[in-house]
Amino acid sequence: MEEKDWNIIAKEALHDDFAFDELYEHFFPRIYNLIYARVKDAATADDIVSDVFEKLVTHLDSFDSTKASFATWLSRIATRTLTDYYRWQSHRQNVEWDDVFSPKVDDKDAPDGQLLEQEGKKELLLALGKLSEREQQIIELKFWGDMNNKEIAETIGISSANVGVILFRAMGTLRQILGRE
């Protein structure tokens, strides 16, 4: 199956509701996961994602595919909107990474299996908390934002090689931390 050219679809979305719906359907889960991974609250994530897509509608005519891909452009909007949210808040909420790793445990799982899963998530939460803010951001963009290294690099303003190095080291650090604990 041929990959869609989201840059072209974004330009078509200016005048074509079907193209806009296609953009929305494809990018909504990606942006929602990215935002939710940071705020850990569904209602807050809904509000921020709503703001992101409102900005998308308002500024779609300024999208320039020669400067960045549509995915990168939209991720930058999401990142800036999230930054605005944290600036607006008087203090940063206590982040519960556990919510990200367990949307819902199936009822059919045994209680001891659920307990082991929760303990593993708590270990991962603690390990992730030991990484730098930049390492956490790159991991979030990679795994929850479903972005490749080039898109991450364009979003946070570093080289894709640097993203790869930071990601490699962060994953190694996570392995070491989880191996010791």
From TrEMBL:
Answer yes or no on keyword rRNA-binding.
no
Q: Which domain of life is it from?
A: Bacteria
Record CDD domains: Sigma70_r4
Q: Which molecular-function annotation in GO is an example for this chain? A: DNA binding
Q: Which Gene3D superfamilies match?
A: 1.10.1740.10, Winged helix-like DNA-binding domain superfamily/Winged helix DNA-binding domain
- All copies of the RNA polymerase sigma factor 70 region 4 type domain together span 122-172
Note the coiled coil stretches, chain numbering: none
Domain spans labelled RNA polymerase sigma-70 region: 23-90
Q: Which UniProt keywords apply?
A: Sigma factor, Transcription, Transcription regulation
Q: Name one GO biological process term.
A: DNA-templated transcription initiation
Q: Which InterPro entries match?
A: RNA_pol_sigma-70-like, RNA_pol_sigma-70_dom, RNA_pol_sigma70_r2, RNA_pol_sigma70_r4_t2, RNA_pol_sigma_r2, RNA_pol_sigma_r3/r4-like, WH-like_DNA-bd_sf
Q: Which PANTHER family match?
A: RNA POLYMERASE ECF-TYPE SIGMA FACTO (PTHR43133), RNA POLYMERASE SIGMA-70 FACTOR ECF SUBFAMILY (PTHR43133:SF46)
Family the UniProt entry places it in: Belongs to the sigma-70 factor family. ECF subfamily.
- Give the protein name, as stated in the record: RNA polymerase subunit sigma-24
The taxonomic lineage of its organism, from the top, reads: Bacteria, Bacillati, Bacillota, Negativicutes, Selenomonadales
